Amino acid sequence: MTGFDAQVELGRTGLKVGRLGISSSFGTPSVAIEEAFDRGCNYFTWGSFLRSRSSEMAAAIRRIVRAGRRDQLVLAMVTYAHSALLTEFFLKKGLKSAGLEYVDVLLLGYFPRRPPRRVIDGALELQRKHLVRFIGLTSHNRKLFRQLRADGMYDLFHVRYNAVHRGAETETFPYMTGERRPGVVSFTATSWQQLLKKSKMPAGQTPPTAADCYRFVLSHPSVDACMVGARSREQMRENLGVLDTGPMNAEELERMRTIGDHIHRS
Question: Which residue has the higher pLDDT, 227 or 87?
Answer without folding.
Answer: 227
